[in-house]
């Protein structure tokens, strides 16, 4: 494909114009952001987020290049540790972040209106026996907890609760990885669950003490 024909496609043209703005911002000047980053990366946080187009962590947290190491998948799930050698893409990224990059925090970022979570309650909406269904079985336990706690809740409430409960399941699954367990004990690696409600723009975090999600008081957050 030639550049001329490539740039006739509206969506592609929009992306390339976006890249031009990105370059002007991060490659310009004597000491550009990428001048430092061209020698390597040292992000302090590993973020596990959903692939949903509305919850890009770098945009949500106004991060600069090199600041967060991001893994995105359907419904921001972490599978439990497995010793068989399969194609464990998520586990490989987690291992690289913890063992090689020595990140200080792992954040599981869940969100409202998660299509992956919804599929647990509406299995007909996805391909039977497909990849999504198999992947979402990681959150089966979270779904059962929600059904037990809210047997009469409507679909919306069940989804909302399960979006949060599955974050807790993923936090528990993180601890099943031996190298995470030892990094928590030996160097204070922090594990954090965060929930973004895209309907009202609120952010909550999982409080270990109360075992509940608490809304972040934005007015108390100051610029660094
Ligand atoms: Zn999602």
Short description:
Helices cover 42% and strands 17% of the residues. The protein is α/β, with parallel strands linked by helices and 224 residues long.
Descriptive notes:
- The chain is α/β, with parallel strands linked by helices and 224 residues long.
- The protein is globular, with a radius of gyration of 20 Å.
- It has a six-stranded mixed beta sheet, covered by helices on one side.
- The protein is 42% helix and 17% strand.
- Helix 8 packs across helix 9.
- It contains ten helices and six strands.
- It starts with a helix and ends in a 9-residue tail after the last strand.
- The relative contact order is 0.12.
- It folds into two domains: 40 residues, no CATH class; 180 residues, 3-Layer(aba) Sandwich (Beta-carbonic Anhydrase, Chain A).
- The structure holds zinc ion (ZN).
- Zinc ion binds next to helix 6.
């Amino acid at each position: 494909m030639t550049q001329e024909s490539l740039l006739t496609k509206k969506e592609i043209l929009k992306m390339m114009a976006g890249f031009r703005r990105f370059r002007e911002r991060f490659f310009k000047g004597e000491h550009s952001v990428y001048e430092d980053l061209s020698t390597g990366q040292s992000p302090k946080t590993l973020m596990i987020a959903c692939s949903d187009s509305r919850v890009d962590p770098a945009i949500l947290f106004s991060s600069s290049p090199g600041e967060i190491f991001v893994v995105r998948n359907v419904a921001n799930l972490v599978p439990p540790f497995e010793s068989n050698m399969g194609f464990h893409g998520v586990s490989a990224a987690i291992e690289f972040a913890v063992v090689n990059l020595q990140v200080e925090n792992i954040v599981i970022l869940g969100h409202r209106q998660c299509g992956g979570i919804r599929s647990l309650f509406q299995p007909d909406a996805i391909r039977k026996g497909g990849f999504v269904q198999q992947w979402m079985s990681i959150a089966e336990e979270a779904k059962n907890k929600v059904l037990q706690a809210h047997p009469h809740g409507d679909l919306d409430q069940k989804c909302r609760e399960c979006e949060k409960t599955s974050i807790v399941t993923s936090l528990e699954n993180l601890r099943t990885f031996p190298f995470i367990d030892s990094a928590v004990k030996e160097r204070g690696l922090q594990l954090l669950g965060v929930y973004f409600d895209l309907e009202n723009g609120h952010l909550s975090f999982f409080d270990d003490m109360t075992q509940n999600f608490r809304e972040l008081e934005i007015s108390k957050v100051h610029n660094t």
